[in-house]
Amino acid sequence: MSDELVRRGHQVVFIVDKRxxxxxxxxxxxxxxxxxxxxxxxxxxxxxxxxxxxxxRPDCLFAAFGSTNVMLSVGWLMxxxxxxxxxxxxxxxxxxxxxxxxxKLRILKIRKRLIYRLATHVVPNSVAGLQDAHLVYGVPTExxxxxxxxxxxxxxxxxxxxxSHDANRTICVGRLHPTKGQxxxxxxxxxxxxxxxxxxxxxxxxxxxREECERIAEELGISERCRxxxxxxxxxxxxxxxxxxxSIVPSRSECFGLVNIESMAMGTPVIASNVGGIGEIxxxxxxxxxVPPDDPTSLALRLAEVLGNPQxxxxxxxxxxxxxxxxxxxxxxxxxxxxxxxxxxxxxENAAN
Length: 353
Description:
By secondary structure, the chain is an alpha/beta fold. It is 43% helix and 15% strand. The strands form three sheets. A six-stranded parallel beta sheet has the order 8-7-6-9-10-11, sandwiched between helices. Strands 3-4-5 form a three-stranded parallel beta sheet. The model is unreliable at 348-353 (pLDDT under 50).
């Protein structure tokens, strides 16, 4: 998206995580800066942003994740005409992961309601996200515009990639947190251990639930079938997706789920929880299957159906690759930049009126 904006003659400035300081390049377009703090929530970050706004005089700010509060508040105070915030996480994901006490969660929701009022536009990455922003934070629906996430076709970037789906390999990619539901998958695997004794289940990702997941696998007698691989380089994850017969996404909450379109790009059928925006990505029974969340029995039944039917896997694989084209970056970024270019003209008209 930034490349397309630059191609159309816009100056683009990124402010990235401090851990990516090696990428900093202040003289280029796009220019790349790093936040002063590891998480941009401090006064130093606000002052840093204020200085950049005075330097570049931007027409538009885009905020996401940890930078949202600083960027929207400073942007509003500095009268940046267009202030856009990405909405990428369902509100219930925080409570499911249980990382914040209830009283603090209520305060954060109130604060988030106030912050979203400072945005001129909210961009959810799914229709489900739009509804969540409206119901939880009171964001007017007319203030929202859904932009699905997109990816460049990873098959073009990986050398010597073979889409050789092994009938006895499956993959589950995601950080090991309660919201991602790997424990549900483990219970489903236990129901299949007699019928599919040679199938290996790879878990890619890390997090606070890893020890618990390993313990559950041991208790269910499936630890020899489950490989907890931790975090891997992204190209290695994609190669493992390409080698798997099915990609499993057992999330309890998901606004979109990028792993779904990564799997489809590799021609790997997906079995995923029908939560949030996942049902907007692919159709049940076409590119994969949708199952109820927290339901290991339903998940096991669909897994057995895919693992036991080579023709079904082949058909779903072809449909998955076709469906990915709707999310392939070159096919969508131009339309998204067209929308971005309308924002400032609309703000100017509103101000004049």
